[in-house]
Design goal:
It is built from five helices and six strands. It is an alpha+beta fold.
Length: 139
Amino acid sequence: MGQPAVASPAVEISQEMIDQFARVTRDSQWIHVDPERASAQSPYGGTIAHGFLVLSLLTDWQTSCIAFPGAKMLLNYGFDKVRFTSPVLSGARVSARFSLAQVVQARPGEARCAWTVEIEAEGAPRPSVHAEWLILVRY
């Protein structure tokens, strides 16, 4: 808390990743999986990643740039807020910035950490996602 945000490495959101996510989640809306139609009809000029795909990368980003020394287990506790504020185009490189907002001792040996998160695509004018993410840490 009160520290500068920690930034993750960037990850490319390829069309193959989008297609795989569509198959797993059964969300095959054309804006995600049909490059020809998206090029012709989408206001974005091509396909875009599912918002939930981008959000699901938080765990990987978090483990790549934040350590929890002595922790036995980390659990996703949920979100207090998620906003998808800008599309992520296929082929974009995205990363996350994490700011620790609050730490609360839930019970002995267990802390709940609240993180303010922004997910950004390189070169985009504004963040793609704003979230308040809760992680439960067991020591």
